[in-house]
Every structure is written in C-alpha cells, then in structure tokens.
C-alpha cells in the first residue's frame, strides 16, 4: 500500500548503531517461542521477560531493593509523571532515573503519550505532537516526538519508546490509518532526536489497529528503520481476544528475528504464555500490582482473594510452592487479618504477585531452553483451569496455529 500523497514519510530511514543486540539463546522447534539474552547497559535481560511497572520512580507497594531481590532485570519508569514532577532537570542532576530511584538494573521508559491520551481528558493530537493541559497547573503543554525523546534522554533509560499516535483498539475507520502513518513519521523524528543512540535504545511501536492490512503496512515501513527493537502497540485495550491474538501473530511473523519484540500492556498469565508461543519476548502490565491492592494474589490455579472469609483461619501461605518472601513468612490468615487494618498487606501481596510473574517467565524460558515448551503450556493450562471445557477458545485457537493442541 502506498502512503496517501499528504501522508508521505518525512526524510529517509535512519541507521542506528543499535546496541540492544539479541543473541537468540534457543528457539522452540515447534512454536514461535524464543529464549534470548538481551544485552542492555545495566545487565543482560533473559527473555521472555515480564517488566513490572513503576510510577513516579517508585514501584507501588514494593521497594527497589525488594525488586532486585526478586531477580527483576528490567522495570518500567513512567515518563508522563516524571516529566511533570519532579521534572527532567532534577532527575538528570540525580544521574538520571537510575540514580533518582537508586535502581541498578535496566529501565524502560514510555513516551508519555499514552498516559496523556488515557489520563488527560483535554488532549489533542496534531502533526506537531500531543497538546494537553497540565493536571498540575492547567498550563497548555505540547509533547512532541522531540520533547518526548529529550525527556527520556534526561531520564537515561536503557530502552526508550517512540511517541506514537495512540488510538483505542476499539476505534475503526480513517482515524486508525491516520494514526498509523503519523506514528511512522513520529518514529523518524524520534530517531533524529535521540542524543544517546549508543546507550539508549529506541523502540518503534507498531500500530494499525485491528486491520491486518494497516498492521502489515506499518510493519513494512517501521522495519525499514534499523531501530534496536519493536513494540506491538495499540492492543490489549478492550478488543476481542480473537482480534488481539491474530494481530500479535501477524506482527511477529513480520518482525525481524534478531530484534526484541515487546507486547505492550499484557500481563494476565494465560495471555503471557500464549503470546510467548506466538513469538513475543517482553511484556508489561500494571495488572499484578493493581490487583494486589484489592487483595488478589496470583496463583498457578488463577487467583486467590485474601479478603474472603474462607482464609480467616487458613495457616497456609498464599501458594505453598512459592518461594517469595511473603509466602516464606506469612499465612493467608495473617494477610487476611492485616488487610483490614494496614496497607502492609498490599505490599506483601504485591511482592508475591511480582514474584509470581517473574517466576512464571523464568519457567517459560527454562522450558524453551530444555526443548519442552509445548508440554509446559499443556501443564500450565491444566493447572490454570479446572477442566479443558473452561479453556478460553481464543487461547486454544491461537495455540493450535503454532502446533500446540490442548486436549
Ligand atoms: Zn509467594
């Protein structure tokens, strides 16, 4: 598909000295799953990986030391909040976000755009950038691709995300195509604005809504740019699961094998396992930390709501097989009682939930390396659902396309 005359790409694709090299440790011979070692400035990241989300430089309900102890190799910093308060200058003075947070592993920062479109009601997208009113002082602010990269350069993150034109996945029509072409043009502006291409890896974000044609066009254009990695964006926003997985697998079919693939906003255990099978390497989601604040603990058989009466006298830990600090020290009964009187219960459950996600991904990775990933998926599904009749049909269909049949 040719770009419409008024939507031509500005400038030529840029070449970057990409240092987010991706030695493929192992590829599953059956599915599209891969286990890779992603070389980033602060440490190697073993993929598939789940990246916990932080806000304002602190993880809600967990400290950076605790995150480190859980073996987290990369987490997310939030550009929108950090760019507003305390502001990029202050963070730059503190030796970037790593110094400000005192976090020694890798950081990924978002562009700030998504937060604006989703959090700030009065935002307007123009070719220049995203215009919005500051929720702090009401001033009009323009977040341009250049501005987003300048903030992320000040934060010093190991992976930066391009500013993209975000459209809800439930929107269809010409707006989706417009946003796709604009995201490509903004990618070029972001590449041009990056002051530290040697140590800050800029990822492109594939858009195109739920249209296979638009997604393919976006993939064709963006993969012409030699960026260090690619994110699959614009999904996980309330679309049908059938549309979701088809867009994911179409994207991984067209992304270069040697580059990391980041599926944005995905964090349910079943979604993680299925999307690894479809070829994704990196994931993030606020779900495990958010759900912890409501007393919901993630377990291999689903979730357990600690506030329920049935746990008031239960001496077991959340998950008897879990080795996290919460499960090693505390019973369900204790957490149940604590939840009523103290926010500490949320911290304990947050630690468990992050540990659950990280441990799940380490097991997924090990099974890929051991050559038994399809069996891992079958066992995982059996444990997660009481009976095969309860397997979500989208997951069964998606896995069937990569030769995993669930009985
Ligand atoms: Zn635990």
From TrEMBL:
Organism: Esox lucius
Domain of life, source organism: Eukaryota
The entry's keywords: Cytoplasm, Glycosyltransferase, Membrane, Metal-binding, Mitochondrion, Mitochondrion outer membrane, Transferase, tRNA processing, Zinc
Region (RNA binding): 265-271, 289-293
Keyword Zinc: yes
Gene: QTRT1
Subunit structure: Heterodimer of a catalytic subunit QTRT1 and an accessory subunit QTRT2.
Alphabetical list of HAMAP family matching this protein: Q_tRNA_Tgt
Cofactor: Zn(2+)
Membrane topology recorded in Swiss-Prot or TrEMBL: Peripheral membrane protein
Cellular component aspect of the GO annotation: cytosol; mitochondrial outer membrane
UniProt-recorded name of the protein: Queuine tRNA-ribosyltransferase catalytic subunit 1
UniProt xrefs under PANTHER family: QUEUINE TRNA-RIBOSYLTRANSFERASE CATALYTIC SUBUNIT 1
Residues in tRNA-guanine(15) transglycosylase-like domain copies: 31-384
E.C. number: 2.4.2.64
Localization in the cell: Cytoplasm; Mitochondrion outer membrane
Xref: NCBIfam families: Q_tRNA_tgt, tgt_general
Protein function: Catalytic subunit of the queuine tRNA-ribosyltransferase (TGT) that catalyzes the base-exchange of a guanine (G) residue with queuine (Q) at position 34 (anticodon wobble position) in tRNAs with GU(N) anticodons (tRNA-Asp, -Asn, -His and -Tyr), resulting in the hypermodified nucleoside queuosine (7-(((4,5-cis-dihydroxy-2-cyclopenten-1-yl)amino)methyl)-7-deazaguanosine). Catalysis occurs through a double-displacement mechanism. The nucleophile active site attacks the C1' of nucleotide 34 to detach the guanine base from the RNA, forming a covalent enzyme-RNA intermediate.
EC primary class: transferase
């Amino acid at each position: 598909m040719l770009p419409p005359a008024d939507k031509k790409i500005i400038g030529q694709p840029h070449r970057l000295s990409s240092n987010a090299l991706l030695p493929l440790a192992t590829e599953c011979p059956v599915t599209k799953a891969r286990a890779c070692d992603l070389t980033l400035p602060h440490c190697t990241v073993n993929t598939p990986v789940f990246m916990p989300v932080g806000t304002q430089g602190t993880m809600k309900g967990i400290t950076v030391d605790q995150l480190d102890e859980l073996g987290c190799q990369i987490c997310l910093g939030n550009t929108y909040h950090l760019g507003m308060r305390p502001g990029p200058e202050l963070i730059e003075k503190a030796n970037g976000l790593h110094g400000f947070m005192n976090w020694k592993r890798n950081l990924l920062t978002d562009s700030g755009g998504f937060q604006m479109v989703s959090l700030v009601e009065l935002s307007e997208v123009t070719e220049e950038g995203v215009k919005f009113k500051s929720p702090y002082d009401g001033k009009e602010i323009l977040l341009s691709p250049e501005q987003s990269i300048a903030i992320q350069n000040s934060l010093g993150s190991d992976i930066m995300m391009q500013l993209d034109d975000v459209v809800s996945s439930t929107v269809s029509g010409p707006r989706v195509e417009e946003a796709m072409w604009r995201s490509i043009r903004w990618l070029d502006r972001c590449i041009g604005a990056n002051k530290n291409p040697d140590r800050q890896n800029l990822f492109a974000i594939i858009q195109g809504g739920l249209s296979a044609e638009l997604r393919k066009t976006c993939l064709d254009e963006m993969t012409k740019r030699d960026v260090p990695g690619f994110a699959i964006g614009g999904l996980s926003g309330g679309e049908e699961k059938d549309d979701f997985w088809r867009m994911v697998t179409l994207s991984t079919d067209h992304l270069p094998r040697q580059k990391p693939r980041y599926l944005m906003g995905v964090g349910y255990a079943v979604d993680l396992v299925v999307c690894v099978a479809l070829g994704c390497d990196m994931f993030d989601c606020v779900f495990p930390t958010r759900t912890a604040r409501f007393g919901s603990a993630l377990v291999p058989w689903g979730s357990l709501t600690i506030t329920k009466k049935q746990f008031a006298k239960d001496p077991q830990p959340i998950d008897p097989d879990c080795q996290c600090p919460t499960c090693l020290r505390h019973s369900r009964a204790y957490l149940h009682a604590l939840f009523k009187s103290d926010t500490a219960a949320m911290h304990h459950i947050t630690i468990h939930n992050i540990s659950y996600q990280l441990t799940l991904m380490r097991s997924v990775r090990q099974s890929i390396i051991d050559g038994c990933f399809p069996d891992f998926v079958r066992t995982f599904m059996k444990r997660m659902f009481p009976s095969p009749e309860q397997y979500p049909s989208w997951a069964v269909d998606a896995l069937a396309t990569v030769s995993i049949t669930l009985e």
